[in-house]
Write a structure and sequence with these properties.
mainly alpha; 0% strand
């Protein structure tokens, strides 16, 4: 059974995601995005059972060199494989994107590209890697079924971005969970995720 705190955190993010799709001004869109993510993280921090899962003290199980190679590999995988995959799927199945991100400029763009994308990466890695693994392995174990289930959950959160991006996000989620299972920490994944998003949004 999925804990109510996880459903509440997901519902908060999804509700703000739906609301932000109605926004046409960059500052309103970004404000909704940040609000949903911060509210979900605050909810996880406020509930003791959720806090124990979402914010544990993690220690790397592998060395710095291997962690670095994983980060470089994840970013390269996203740039080479995921982008090609997204373009191929979008060409085969066009017109599946529900909304567009309003383009920010000036100081707002700088804030979003720095702090905003860190928030995006951190919130998604905590929820879709750390929390999802902890919850899903009770039903699926810690092998391929859990990895695929967590990646499907991660991809479904990106439902509005178009079928090509959903497939690419699924692929990224599988690779990210492989690393998380190997290393046991999300902070390197936050860095890799952030670098990928900077490439994607700059």
């Amino acid at each position: 059974m999925v804990p109510s705190w996880f459903l509440a955190g997901m519902a908060t993010m999804v509700a703000m995601e739906i609301f932000r799709l109605r926004q046409t001004e960059p500052i309103a869109w970004i404000g909704c995005d940040y609000a949903g993510r911060i509210a979900a993280l605050a909810l996880l921090a406020a509930i003791p059972a959720a806090r124990a899962v979402a914010f544990p003290c993690e220690q790397s199980k592998i060395g710095l060199r291997e962690v670095t190679l994983w980060i470089v590999g994840i970013v390269a995988f996203d740039r080479i494989v995921d982008h090609a995959l997204a373009e191929y799927v979008n060409a085969a199945v066009p017109g599946t994107r529900v909304g567009e991100i309003p383009r920010a400029h000036g100081w707002l763009y700088a804030v979003d590209l720095s702090g905003g994308l860190v928030l995006v990466a951190y919130s998604e890695e905590v929820i879709f890697r750390r929390c999802a693994r902890a919850l899903l392995r009770n039903s699926f174990g810690d092998g391929p079924a859990m990895i695929i289930a967590a990646a499907l959950l991660f991809a479904s959160y990106h439902w509005w971005t178009g079928f090509g991006n959903i497939v690419a996000t699924l692929s990224f989620g599988i690779v990210a969970m492989l690393f998380y299972r190997r290393d046991g920490t999300v902070l390197p994944l936050v860095l890799a995720h952030y670098i990928c998003d900077v490439y994607n949004f700059s």
